[in-house]
Amino acid sequence: MPLLYSRAQICEAVTKGLTLAADEARLSSSAARFTWARTAAVTLLERPGAAWAEVKSEHNKAAPSEPPTDDNTPRFTRDQVSQAVNNGVDLAAEHNGRANPDDLDNFVINAALSLLDDPDADFDQVVAECYGERPSVVRSWL
Predict the structure, then answer these.
(1) What is the pLDDT of residue 81?
(2) Reduced 3-state DSSP string for the chain
């Protein structure tokens, strides 16, 4: 049986991945490229075929006062998470004026997936796991 992750674990990994990427690129994690990517990834996790209009609707909603009752129930496979994060980052890039995802977008994806497996991973650990380069080289891409 495959390992399953909860929505709470996934949201935490995506948020940490975005923050790690933003910090390394010396950008605010509240920049549109990051907030839209997070919303898109989480929306596509629940509804893989969601259109951009659904992402926009979710993005513009006020935060719920209470998390969903199944927030901590493990129910998503790593493949589902990977697909949602990849597609969410791609969709956000497209709708935020970038024809294609860039190196920073790709780092967000790699960081989120690495942090899903190791919530305490840092930049150097993500680089070691996902890239065949030194951290300084990857940092220069961001």
Answers:
(1) 96
(2) CCCEECHHHHHHHHHHHHHHHHHHHCCCCCCHHHHHHHHHHHHHHHCCCCCHHHHHHHHHCCCCCCCCCCCCCCCEEHHHHHHHHHHHHHHHHHHCCCCCCCHHHHHHHHHHHHHHHCCCCCHHHHHHHHCCCCHHHHHHHC
